[in-house]
Amino acid sequence: MDPLLTVSGLTMDFGGIRALDHLDLRLHPGEIAALIGPNGAGKTTLFNCLTGIYAPTGGELLLTPPGQAPKRLNGLKPNQITAQGVARTFQNIRLFPNMTVLENVMIGRHCRTHATVFGAIFRPPAVRHEEKAIVGMSLALLERVNLADQANEYAKHLPYGAQRRLEIGRALATEPLLLLLDEPAAGMNPQETLELNELIRSIRDDGTAILLIEHDMKLVMRLSDHIFVLDYGRKIAEGSPEEVRHNPAVIRAYLGEESIHA
Amino acid sequence: MLTVKDFRQALLTALWFMFLTFPLLVIKVNPVEKSILWRWSNLAWVGGVSFGLFVASRLLLAFRAARRERIRLGLAQETPPLLPRLLAQRAVTLPLLGIGALFFLAFPTLFSTYQVNIMSTALMYVVLGLGLNIVVGVAGLLDLGYVAFYAVGAYSYALLHLHFGLGFWTVLPIGGLLGALFGILLGFPVLRLRGDYLAIVTLGFGEIIRLVLENWTEFSQGPSGIANIPRPGLFGIELSLEASIIYLYYLMILMVLFTIFMINRLQNSRIGRAWYALREDDIACQAMGIDKTRTKLTAFALGATWAGMAGVFFAAKTTFVNPASFTFLESAIILCIVVLGGMGSIVGVIVGALVLILLPEYLRAVADYRMLAFGAVLVVMMVFRPQGIVATVRRSYTVNR
């Protein structure tokens, strides 16, 4: 099967600092892949390049929707990339705090709907129908992330774990082929992490590929089909959880030079 | 609740205010007799009132903090604010709406033509406020040059009438369209800007339009302005001055209703939600698939449309336009209406416009200190109620499960 996402030679420079150095990744449809590495390894930078927030200095980003021709993601604006089917969550939660939980998800439907200014004013049947469908689908997504009871609360009033789930729900509303999760379990208690584990699996089972950044190694090992390890902007290892766990380069990156010899 | 420190601060504040207002309120120079009148009683008033207000404000803040603490400890329930709660109840809003509608309909029969004229002006500012509300309140783009679009509307009526003899009803939509066009023209260069930078550029744009109108004499007749602009026609019937003022008043009412209807629909739509999202977090907004460029441009264009139409009304109402009507102060007042009324709230902006435009008219008794009182009201509002008179409440949807 063709890979869904092909990253080749991706390089990102900030002034004189090379945050990403000729990175190559492949991600297949229906796969849960994890991106791990010490702080400052370039994980979030990779996400920002993938979603068009940064313009990469060099390299290729290709998205190949199943049964379609590959599309180049370089140089597209963030919203165009989302429209191509790549959605994300943020490490430091970026919800729309003064909008309701439901509205947050409804925003995610924006790029899949079409009502114009004239549609908004005259409300022809097609637009009314579209609005109804937006509300319906958003509510269904809230059920899925277990937030339907709080649909009309302001997003800022949700507890931390619920805000993380809402971000996932909002990203799902864009109907992504590939979902990028930036530290989804950060700040969650063990029970919440367990539920997150189930949620991510169920999203994968619906056919969305997932790439996640995570520091909770238990979650990463339990969840991922494939792991990429980054250090100083380079990929130092990849493979199944088992392979990565025993890779000397990974142990060195995480624990330091001496521990190998100890 | 209050400590000695609070009282000491109150005393200092009172002294500071006495010092600040001393030249204005105490010294009165009589240039004819070359004498100075010392009004010491005013000083005592200023001192006493500012001392009292300071203590009262401290008490209010302490009370609020205590209440928050109790809520945090679980001793008290958080009650939603009274005003939105009342406004959400039909039993309250329907009679209020009915009384309001009757009052505004009967206004010309109850009051003099002079009052009607003032009310028309206030209604014009309601339209302007609602238009700017799209840009500032909803989309969160600080626009300090909004008056430019108002000027575009007013001059489009003045010039199109002067050169082509076009009437009010033909120019009204043209004024709106020209406003939108200039909104887009301004929108393009400022797409990359945010916050303070955006504010400065829009301020510059507002001044450019005014200076062009002032100096390009062949085009706009310069500072002397354009006179003899006809009032709105009513199927060719000749109206007396009084009747035409009342007619314009009712037109303004219709215009306000039309604006409320349109803006309400826009806010509760896919486009309106995108504006709110842009205000809340522009990076997340883009990452959710919203085209930032297009969303900003529609906000600028639609906001400017209403300024353009209000400008046509302005030209028709005063029958004379000149650049002096479109100074930065106008932009500032419209911005105050939006901020004071409540950013993003339609009811808030209407209340804000009526208060800010009508209050100074009826405070003519203390005309000398009007701007002083105006400034004080703004400061007090921003300290105690930064969300405005009527805060926005997001729409809730019924959840069928």
Written account of the structure:
The complex is a heterodimer of chains A (262) and B (401). In chain A, 39% of the residues lie in helices and 23% in strands. Chain A is built from eleven helices and ten strands. Chain A has helices at residues 43-50, 78-84, 101-108, 117-122, 125-144, 160-172, 190-205, 217-223, 241-245, 248-255, 258-261, and strands at residues 5-14, 17-27, 32-36, 58-63, 71-72, 86-88, 178-182, 209-213, 226-231, 234-239. Chain A is globular and about 65 Å long. With 401 residues, chain B is mainly alpha-helical. Chain B has two domains: 4-73, no CATH class; 111-384, ABC transporter involved in vitamin B12 uptake, BtuC. Chain B has helices spanning 4-26, 40-72, 82-87, 90-110, 113-138, 147-164, 168-187, 195-215, 217-220, 241-267, 270-280, 282-287, 292-318, 328-341, 346-362, 370-384, and strands at 27-30, 35-38. Chain A binds chain B through residues 51, 53, 77-79, 82-83, 87-88, 90, 94-100, 102-103, 106-108, 110-113, 115-117, 119-121, 123, 127, 130-131, 134-135, 139, 148, 151-152, 154, 170-171, 173-174, and chain B through 262, 265-266, 269-274, 276-277, 280-281, 283-292, 298, 302, 392, 394-397, 399, 401.
